[in-house]
Amino acid sequence: DDFLKELEMKTGGTVEVDDITGELKLVNETGEGGTIVKGDAVPEVEPIPEVEQVLGGTGTSWADFMSLKDAETYNNWTDLREAGLDQAKINDIILTNKGYRPDPATYLSQEYIDVHLAQFDDGVSVIQTEWAYSRYSETNGFVGVPDDNSLFVMPKEYCDDVISRANGNISIIEKELGFPEGYFSDGGGLVRIDTLNTSELNIRMPSGNETGANKLWIPGGKTVGGVPEAITNTIPLKDTTVTRIDVD
Question: What is the model's pTM?
């Protein structure tokens, strides 16, 4: 990963990811004294101000060596490990055939699940291509997959942020929402679907067994681009607001 290379450049050592725990380790640091085994230790450095906004405090951590976006990703990993989901478990779940993946409640703490789902209390959003919207949602009168009564959604405020950061670049939206490159390109444009009434939607953690879970799905409730996601029941279009997204 790019941020691992950045860490190595800034520390002068070799950074590795533990295959079992998923933790980052500074294996060595080269200096006048030769090679020093450092384990989990991190050299004392001045914290990066932008990173402190993510960390919510002061002090040196691995995130202090990273860009704001990479620090967010690293802290997401940390949160998942503390909730009971380490890298080994993540790998096991991903390699399990779709349809047989475990209930998230078996590997995530209830506290983590409650905090995660609270992000969706103020509204949820979906982004579709114009083609998918007219072919399925508009025709059916609802958004989502009827086969298993499911729909991947993001918090409305995160949808605002994704669209703002993308600034019309459709590939950025694809990446942040966890879609393969080019997935949105030939869809005739993008449609945003919002609903503020979330109390009857049965919001829940994604298990990866949903019809809409693609090959980039990962456990923990976030896309590979770091955007929080959850599952709801299908949503009637009459309960939504539909707008077009300006893209290049």
Answer: 0.70
